[in-house]
Amino acid sequence: MALDREAVVRAGLELLDTEGLEGLTLRKIAAALDVKAPALYWHFQNKQQLLDEMATTMARDAYAGHDLAALAAERPWQDLLRVQADGLRRMLLGHRDGARLFGGTAMTDSGPVVAGEPLLRALTDAGADLRTATAVLRTLNCFVLGFVLEEQGIVAPDGQRDPRFDPMARSERVDRDRYPLTSASSEHLFGDLDRSFRDGVDMIIGGVRLGERG
Length: 214
Known about the structure:
- The chain has helices at residues 5-19, 26-32, 47-63, 68-72, 77-93, 98-102, 111-114, 117-125, 130-154, 167-173, 180-184, 186-190, 193-206.
- By secondary structure, the protein is mostly helical.
- The termini are far apart.
């Protein structure tokens, strides 16, 4: 079977899941495809180009089968932002070191980029100018990316938690008499991560003022 870009990207994503971002090398991808490393340079000039394509494929896969335009016709913009946040989080968690890979990469085609058009339309239809609508999406997406980056540092791919982030252990390291609120906050920081994520998303959405111009 001829080697193509899709095969290289899929092999890269599989290697990412088993080896993590640190173990992702062109040499290992070539070995998995039973070819020599130079063969990959017909498709990608360097590793960054491959990472960009892998991130684009992750986004493309995440948006496949999801019709945000149809959803926008029947749901308020607040619900659309929650759908966006949940979907982005699932996409990043779907691969080991997904947030580390995705951050700083550039989309290689317009598909995943224009998928956000219904979100921008919903926000502008609700009274936002384009600058505000763009800022809302950027803020939300940056929160999700940062949250998952931390989350994947706390919870291993097999679901095991790093004991360094045990809420009780953190709480006990803090002088409860001098810093009672900091000690008690440990549960909210490292306890129920799903709830913590929802709280953050709701806080961002609750702070949006679409009708105001700056």
